[in-house]
Amino acid sequence: MEQDVFRLHYEATQARVEEALREQIGRMGRYADLREAMEYSLMAGGKRIRPVLVLESCRMCGGDPETALPFACAVEMIHTYSLIHDDLPAMDDDELRRGRPTNHMVYGEATAILAGDGLLTAAFQALTQADLTAQQRVDAVACLSLAAGPEGMVGGQAMDMAGEGRSLTRSELEQLQSLKTGALIAAAAELGCIAAGGSPEQREAVRRYAQCLGRAFQVQDDILDVTSTDEELGKPTGSDREKEKNTFVSLLGLERSRELVEELTAQAVAALDGFSSRDFLVWLANTLAQRTK
Amino acid sequence: MEQDVFRLHYEATQARVEEALREQIGRMGRYADLREAMEYSLMAGGKRIRPVLVLESCRMCGGDPETALPFACAVEMIHTYSLIHDDLPAMDDDELRRGRPTNHMVYGEATAILAGDGLLTAAFQALTQADLTAQQRVDAVACLSLAAGPEGMVGGQAMDMAGEGRSLTRSELEQLQSLKTGALIAAAAELGCIAAGGSPEQREAVRRYAQCLGRAFQVQDDILDVTSTDEELGKPTGSDREKEKNTFVSLLGLERSRELVEELTAQAVAALDGFSSRDFLVWLANTLAQRTK
What we know:
The structure is a homodimer.
Chain A: H1 2-26, H2 34-42, H3 49-60, H4 69-87, E1 96-97, E2 100-101, H5 103-107, H6 109-128, H7 134-148, H8 153-163, H9 170-196, H10 200-227, H11 230-233, H12 239-242, H13 248-252, H14 254-270, H15 279-289
Antiparallel strand pairs in A: 1-2
């Protein structure tokens, strides 16, 4: 019963995010097929975990989630651009994403590169549009640019490209993933706290929660790549092995990977000890750990 | 004699920009060959017109150029990322830039894409690091993201890609160029004014100056592509015609294009009427109009 309430709340929050993203898209890129290409990937569904994390972190830190909506959109725009560029022939060369042809398969490589560049740039514009103080907005820009840039997500992707075809140690793989996916998930939680005007201690706590959540999410992703069917996942399974990608499953085996997801989820939940209204984010961590797609 | 003074000042300002860019690079991207790839293109010289424009616009509006240095770096990082992505095989497919192999020729396509993404993201981080008020920094993020994004530079590049192989009208070409190159040059001048705490009227005036300067610069670029030698230009001349690029020369002819450069330069200079210390930027407009490379 309680589970249903959280599930419904998640869906309602997703719907609010979809609406806000649609408004963002409406503002940008009237030229050639650029807007259509950005919209194709941005509105392709997905779990919207990062923007939901922004909004719920904001709520938990005592803020009004509505004020954090531009921050939530910005994070999802960054995430979407990274998928578009990662799928390019020069990168992972993927033809399917969420069960649909990838951006460059539909719009061509040039437009896909530009759609990514456009979403990345527009994300920072979205941050400036929040109805918050200038200090909060500039803190958000600093936080998101650090997480998404050469010292964060882009750095992780560069490590990933360089590491293909050779075996990584566990600590190398953990560093790679903490940059490639963890940094942006942590930034999402921090952005919510910034929007709420939270304390440095709150920001540190939600960051720790999100870091553990992000790591658990990545390990679970690696597990699903070998245990799920193509149809469940919306993309070809087994692709990690085929590309000789370094994964937690290839490094630790399936059983140890499953234990790791549980451990990390418990750590994520523990990080929220100091918050009175943490129930939704606790549920989210547990739910993501048990997901099958 | 006076010309020499301005020339020396330009060179000193360029040197200050180089130094600040090197500091920026030192902060980012320790992973794989990402920093090296970003540095390769960012430190490849060039005229540094945009960052010089930031600093000199700041000075003319009554500010201290030193405070505008992070803004100047940010604009040059955006400009550099756009060159890296524009040169990619899926875009203009250029092998030479400023007399050296393009980024992807040296580091491969994947790293070149990531180096561009990294510079674009780090540019916004640089804006947040300026020793200015939060309001000034957030104004700078809003200004630069608008100019560089889907409604500005990226939109222009999308138009350019879509227009290849067919003839554009003059007004289409002007719109394309005002987005593709003009928006960022205008933003450079505006960022200087923001750093100086200039008035809305000052901001509008420097914007008009830079828009005219940017248009003149582009027309002159088109002229040099047909009149210069490969060696002078540091890249193959005649490449516009070879790729059936729409240029002002192909549209208006050489003589009318030269007149247009003069007209636009005069308009740029006229926009500065209200400023007492406008001499350097007047010289800059005239010097760029007469450049041979």
